[in-house]
Amino acid sequence: MKSQGYYYCSVGLLQLLVLSGLAGGVQAGDEDGFTGAPVAVGNGAAWVVVTVDTLGEPESVSVVMDSGALTGLPEATAEKSAWEFPIPMPESGPRTGYDHVLLDWNPVGHMPEGVYSVAHFDVHFYMINNAAREAITFHGEGRDRAMTAPDPQLLPAGYVVPPDAAVERMGMHALDPAGKEFQGEPFSHNFIYGYHNGELMFVEPMVSLTFLQSLADSTTPVKRPERYSYPGWYPSAYRIGFDVEKGEYTIALQGLQRFDE
């Protein structure tokens, strides 16, 4: 959820190879799917992959990270406790409705305290463009409109929007109180919906660093709202997995279905 600023890390030889497409990534349109440009994260890189079915329609949209991405990540300081990595969508392949992904690294977590206050990644899949996202604010004359509660049809059953879940340059976050982390168990992963001006404009898997490091492979159903604000391919499940042969972590939207609104 909450994240501030950008982390500009030094790029070593491995990252230069990855970012030039010579190592650690897949090329657009190959057997692994359509791939976006990689972005330096930690000592490695992250990129977006869109896979398609036999009809050429979107099957999954994933953020993939190589093993180096989980090392060399910044630690929290008194001045800064979160970092953002904007990741572009593939330039080729089917249009999914997602404009870009914002990968957030939270080394000490964020609110609610005692629930999400562990090291984790927030993976925002935005329907709006980067400029519109950067312009999101909950201050000034437009505050009331920005914080407009979404129509109940835009909220999955059981989800709530806490009063302190509005984040600058990001949006308002709707949480699922049925998540295990709200039942006294340590946070591992969950699924968030995001809003601004009353519109649903991002979906967000959250996953703890510990869960990723466990190399678990988990697919979880997604609770869907009755309708959406933007046309696109929305998930019925999300997967967190690890490819042993490639040494890559995947955080994927799966079971995609097109909704026009």
What does this entry look like structurally?
This protein has one domain. Helix content is 8%, strand content 35%. The N terminus is likely disordered. It is globular, with a radius of gyration of 17 Å. It starts with 12 loop residues before the first helix and ends with a strand. A hairpin with a 2-residue loop joins strand 10 and strand 11. It contains 4 helices and 16 strands. The strands form 3 sheets. Strands 1, 2, 3, 4, 12, 14 and 15 form a 7-stranded antiparallel beta sheet that branches. The protein is mainly beta and 261 residues long. The longest helix has 7 residues.
In summary, what is this structure?
This protein has 261 residues and is mainly beta. It has helices at residues 13-19, 130-134, 143-146, 209-213, and strands at 34-35, 39-41, 44-52, 58-66, 83-88, 100-106, 120-126, 166-167, 171-174, 189-196, 199-208, 218-221, 232-234, 237-243, 248-254, 257-259.
- Outline, from the CA principal axes? globular
**What letter string, H or E per element, gives the SSE order?**
HEEEEEEEHHEEEEHEEEEE
Tell me the structural class: mainly beta
Secondary structure: helix percent? under 10%
Any idea what the radius of gyration is? 17 Å
The amount of beta strand, in percent, is 25-35%
Which runs of at least 5 residues are low in confidence (pLDDT < 50)? 2-29
- How far apart are the termini? 24 Å
Mean pLDDT: 88
* Domains, number: 1
Count of DSSP H/I helices: 4
Number of strands: 16
Largest sheet: 7 strands, antiparallel
